[in-house]
Amino acid sequence: FDVSCAPILDQNERLRGIVVVFHDITELKKLEKMRKDFVANVSHELKTPVTSVIGFTETLLDGAMEEPELQDKFLNIILSESKRLQTLISELLELSKIEQEHFEIKWEHVQMTELLDDTIMVLTEKAGEKGITLTDSTKEAGIALGDPQRIRQIMINLITNAISYTSAGGKIQTEIKNMGDGVKLIVSDTGIGIEPNQIPRIFERFYRVDKARSRNLGGTGLGLAIVKHLVEAHGGRIDVASKPGEGTTFEITFKKPIA
Ligand code: ADP
């Protein structure tokens, strides 16, 4: 609590009472802590790859360059850590843009079935390389209200995650479905799944169920935070169903244009 006091005086400046105001700042403190945690997380996430780029470059300059095998290995690490930094920076900028108060959706009628088809075309190769089949089982055209570029981003993030957290031989299925109250985008995988108590946390910035695993897969822990913000900006809803060891289904419901 934040406490402030003020005396109540009468005409003769005599003390008649005291006003004490208790201001509940729990929410403010919570926000402040979240901001501090976020800054600490960002610094840590940025420092890790930078430290490794500097370290490996110094080792190369100190003589490792003479050994072709080491040189190759170290240069590859430097390249992948630099790419990691690049992804991290662009996702951070993206998140900060969509978290701004005046972030606005450019409302359009979005052909969801076509948009999903286009997105799948881009990601089929990536799934194939991992030995995963990516299929779409949409049977109807669906029109949602929203920003096609942003909805595409939601599709990419969800399908990319499905590819990341599914092993070779697994399957990913997508679908656009018309519902009474909106249009649904469904992304379902036969991957590692998520423990029920972890589900509410996966939308937090930088939260990862298994940090090392996500990092090895090139994850930043920001993808679902971006999805959550974008879905909220669309006035939509996210449902997650998952069974550890069996798979996960994300369902996003978007608004439909008024008929
Ligand atoms: P990351 O960059 O780590 O993938 P995200 O914000 O996209 O970050 O996701 C947060 C965490 O949620 C992931 O690290 C992972 O633990 C979990 N997760 C997301 N999608 C899936 C999925 N389809 N199957 C299993 N776990 C998932």
TrEMBL record:
One of its GO terms (cellular component) is membrane raft. GO terms for biological process: cellular response to phosphate starvation; regulation of DNA-templated transcription. The keyword Nucleotide-binding applies. It comes from the Bacteria. It is found in: Cell membrane; Membrane raft. Its main location: membrane. Keywords: ATP-binding, Cell membrane, Kinase, Membrane, Nucleotide-binding, Phosphoprotein, Transferase, Transmembrane, Transmembrane helix, Two-component regulatory system. GO terms for molecular function: ATP binding; phosphoprotein phosphatase activity; phosphorelay sensor kinase activity. Residues 41-258 form the Histidine kinase domain. This is histidine kinase. It comes from Scopulibacillus darangshiensis. The chain holds residues 309 to 567 of 567 of the full protein.
